[in-house]
Amino acid sequence: MNAILEGASYDSVASVIFPRNIYQRRTAPLRGAECNREVTPVSFFLCLISVMLLSTGIGVTAAMLWGLAVKIPYAPITRAYLTIVSDVLNFGAGLLSIPCFWITYTLHGSNTSKAFLPLVIALFGLCIVILLVSEGINYAYKFEPESQTLNRTLLQSMPLYTRNMQVFKTWNMIHKHLSCCGSTSYKEWVGLLKTIPKSCCLQNSCDDGKMYTQGCAHKIALDMMRSRSLSLGLTGILTLVHIAGLCITFVIYIASS
Predict the structure, then answer these.
(1) pLDDT (tens digit, 9 = 90+) per residue, 101-123?
(2) For residue range 126-139, what is the model confidence (pLDDT) as tens digits?
(3) Which of 25, 94, 121, 223 would bridge 60 by S-S if both were Cys, CB 3.0 to 4.6 A apart?
(4) From CA 164, how far away is CA 157, in angstroms rounded?
């Protein structure tokens, strides 16, 4: 009868006849690696750092891809190439966080293998340097809605509208995407070209007066500010995580040597 019960499933005849036995649970024996494991503060913090490295690394990588998608289309007329370099550096630091996570997680689960400690310390240091340089660039290049520097850069690109195909396509894209015209007003195009681009018109024709009249500088600056704020916030968190990881792994390395 015991053999019948052991082979019976929850919807079998035996489980109906002997319902009390379906509540019996047999737990599988723990593997050797999971028995009598001592959780030390070091292993706890290593596990915590590894989880934070994975989550913030993925978050920074995704946010930088979004930031590049925002900034690259504006680059021909804003000339904000250093901010693009900053996002590329952050993207690289986010990718480097993945091997840092894996090595840190491996160290957390091992009490004997510390051979990768110098490597993870070097990776932490490299990531911290990259993130600090990137944050310095982001802090130096501010895009505020009333920034005269951005407005001046946009005005300098407008004479190239009829001579440079990249500038031509960028301005047309911005007019349509942001529903605006010119840097601060559509009148800037009138003074420059004696007319306004068709991309400023609602129906590709401004004969009926239906056109965008608001300038683009304010909207471009808001887009850039959103990207910059997200970048500074996430990279700041990732920098703190890397500093904490560097301190913990360095202490372990000193103690084990």
Answers:
(1) 888 888 766 654 567 788 888 99
(2) 999 999 999 888 77
(3) 94
(4) 9
Q: Are 74 and 220 in contact (CB under 8 A)?
A: yes
Instruction: Calculate ∠ Cα 111-128-68, nearest 5°.
Output: 120
Token digits of residue 119: 């490597």
How many CB atoms neighbour CB 189 within 10 A? 20
| 3 state SS of 9 | coil
Are 160 and 79 spatial neighbours (Cβ–Cβ below 8 Å)?
Answer: no
Which token pair is 247?
Answer: 């301190």
DSSP 147-163: -HHHHHHHHHHGGGTTT
Cα 168 to Cα 161: distance, rounded to the nearest angstrom:
5
Which residues, listed in sequence order, are joined to residue 201 by a DSSP beta bridge?
211
> Residue 214's beta-bridge partner residues?
185
**C-alpha–C-alpha distance, residues 209 and 205, integer Å:** 8
